Amino acid sequence: MQRRFSSEFKLESALLVLEHNYSIAEAARVMNVSKSAMGKWVNQLRDERQGLSPKATPITPEQLEIRELKKKCNALK
C-alpha cells in the first residue's frame, strides 16, 4: 500500500534539503521516505520558487490560492 503525505510534510521535508543543507539521502532517512520521493519534492519546490509551472499540484493550499488571486487580478487589468 502506497503511503500518502500531506502538503505540509512534503514542504517540511524539501526544506531540509533546500534551507538546512541536508543531502537528499539524509533528509529521506530522517523523514523515513524514499530518496526518489524526496528528490521529487525538492525539485518541485525548487521549480516553484523559480516561477516554473509545477508538474503536479502546488505544495501548499496557500500557494494555490495566491495563484488563483493573481489570475483574477490580471483578468481585472
TrEMBL record:
Q: Which SUPFAM superfamilies has this protein been placed in? A: Homeodomain-like
GO terms, molecular function: DNA binding; transposase activity
Query: Single Gene Ontology BP term?
Result: DNA transposition
UniProt similarity note: Belongs to the transposase 8 family.
Name of the protein in its database record: Transposase
Upper taxonomic classification of the species? Bacteria, Pseudomonadati, Pseudomonadota, Gammaproteobacteria, Enterobacterales
